[in-house]
Amino acid sequence: MKKQSVAPSLKFDTKWSYAPAPESADHIQLKSQYELFINGKFVVPSSGKYFDTINPATEKKIALVADANAADVDKAVKAARSAYDKTWSKMPAAERGKYLFRIARILQEKAREIAIIESIDGGKPIRESRDMDIPLAAAHFFYYAGWADKMEYAFPGRTVKPLGVAGQIIPWNFPLLMAAWKIAPALAAGNTVVLKPAETTPLTALKLAEIFQEADLPPGVVNIITGAGATGAAIVNHPGIDKIAFTGSTDVGKIIQKALAGTDKKYTLELGGKAANIIFEDAAIDQAVEGIVNGIFFNQGHVCCAGSRLFVQENIADLVLRKLKDRIETLIVGDPLDKNTDIGAINSKEQLNKIKSLVKAGINEGGECWQSSCAVPSKGYWYRPTLFTKVAQSSSIVQKEIFGPVLAIQTFRTVEEVIEKANNTPFGLSGGIWTDKGSKIFKVSSKLRAGVIWANTYNKFDPTSPFGGYKESGMGREGGLHGLQPYIDFN
Ligand code: ADP
Question: Which secondary-structure segment (H or E) carries 404?
């Protein structure tokens, strides 16, 4: 291996002074209080309780949101069952498809408003919610709309039938996109739904409920109920639910799996990750550095498939590290609604504290920590992009999912070594390979135990492509034809 020479760090002014370019939020329509969406209407929770959803960039309250209890969950499940029995399962599949197309089109019309709400409620940069989350959510409705009346082509030679009522529980990192991932295939296959968004990001799911009203979706076909873990548990344990689709932490995934053991409910779990991004000496290094930055920093690391471990071939390690630091110094952390922002707010105070404590543990274990010198706003929840070097395979920073903008860097010499190291984690959701050699891509990707492997790119999504994990990253696939399968039974 020939060691590449490393030019000194570029001495450009790293505090790029872009003029602020804030997205105007004047036109968004938000209520001060949100009720539960059950049977096509917004209804007051029988719990009588509400919680605040706050803007993590300002710590200000945005709205009050209903906190559903078990009685509310029961109402939602009954509404979904009745809609399934009387309307949705009886409707010709092509008609179901038309509703999905209509939802997709309305979503596109309202894309700008919903992107802004996503960024205000969750803290992610507007560039991401505008260019990725919302267009992809609409694309999922379009994609599954197309399958609704073509199930005999999706599963040739087999007769399929829907399962009934699906309970769906989603996290806060891609709130609307996760709702679309789950609702669109469920409805296309003829099921009805009770969905619970995460307690810190309920607003875009509630806007989606308004879109269902506008699309005249029959009452009860989708019910959106808000609340925290107890509400989610009430969905999981409700006897009227036929299938659970969950995306969230591995800890909660295990609780759900235990709760479902011995029942005949079907389930899919999309859980945590600790993805390895691998750069070989023959990679296009600038392109790889950009992909690595995109993979871990652009959504504050709030991505289960985030490339949070980096393996660099030893002879290019100094060069890659220097280029990474240079690039990271140019990243702008701040107002999620500013179009220049690269890294927005951490989703909640709890999440920020978790990141801080894992970074502290990494330092205590002997890791070398480097952080960008960028400024961060005084109010709100922020975390500077952070690199760790001199970490061992056993370091907590290498083994635990952090869900923040923190990258652990290790080196390797041979292909065999990096495969071994990359697979040495309880997770197996995703990975990335950067090399000029196609044969190396095939060799390494076939040996990595991860559900999704990107080559010379990262974090690319498409509704036609299945997504899901191995090991503690979960079971089942979402997206593509694979994503329809968990919502059907074969006759
Ligand atoms: P994250 O770490 O991404 O916040 P969680 O697993 O804590 O992931 O949360 C994901 C979703 O699961 C949220 O909607 C949350 O309210 C819900 N949830 C939390 N605890 C439970 C539980 N015991 N049963 C069902 N759902 C739960």
Answer: none
Q: How confident is the model at residue 443 (pLDDT cuts 50, 70, 90)?
A: very high
Q: Tell me the CA–centroid distance for residue 197 and ligand 1, in Å.
A: 9
Contact 410, 310 (CB under 8 A): yes
Gap between the Cα atoms of 428 and 451, Å rounded: 6
Residue range 253-262, pLDDT digits in tens: 999 999 999 9
Helix (H, G, I), strand (E, B) or coil at 31: coil
- Alpha-carbon distance 234 to 196, whole Å? 11
Indicate whether 218 pLDDT > 70: yes
Q: What are the angstrom distances between the C-alpha of 112 and each of 80, 181, 237?
A: 30, 20, 37
Question: What is the band of 304 on the pLDDT scale with cuts at 50, 70, 90?
Answer: confident
Handedness of CA 373, 374, 375, 376 (dihedral sign): negative
pLDDT digits (tens, 9 = 90+) for 146-161: 999 999 999 999 999 9
Q: Where are the alpha helices (DSSP H) in 365-432?
A: 396-399, 415-423
pLDDT digits (tens, 9 = 90+) for 447-458: 999 999 999 999
pLDDT at 13: 52
338 DSSP 8-state letter: B
**Which ligand 1 atom lies nearest to the CA of residue 247?**
10
Could you please state the CATH topology (level 3) that the domain comprising 276-462 is classified under. Aldehyde Dehydrogenase; Chain A, domain 2 (3.40.309)
How far, in Å, CA of 309 to CA of 407, rounded? 6
C-alpha 454/C-alpha 445 separation (Å) is: 9
Active site residue 270: yes
For the domain spanning 33-271+473-490, the CATH number is: 3.40.605.10
Residues of the chain with CATH 3.40.309.10: 276-462
Backbone phi, psi, residue 278, to 5° = -115, 120
- Extended strands (E) in 242-400: 243-247, 266-270, 276-279, 309-313, 368-371, 386-389
Distance CA 301, CA 322 (A): 21
- Burial string for 333-350 (b: 16+ CB within 10 Å, else e) reads bbbbbbebbbbbbbbbee
Q: Which residue, by CA, sits nearest to atom 13 of ligand 1?
A: 198
Is 304 labeled as catalytic in the residue annotation?
yes
Backbone angles phi, psi at 212, to 5 degrees: -60, -40
| CA nearest to 415, candidates 214, 249, 280 | 280
Q: What is the DSSP string of 286-298?
A: HHHHHHHHHHHTT
Q: Is 33 exposed, middle or buried (0-12, 13-18, 19+ CB in 10 A)?
A: exposed
pTM of the model: 0.95
Ligand 1 centroid to 137 CA: how many Å? 21
pLDDT of residue 421: 97
Annotated catalytic residue: which of 23, 128, 281, 304? Answer: 304
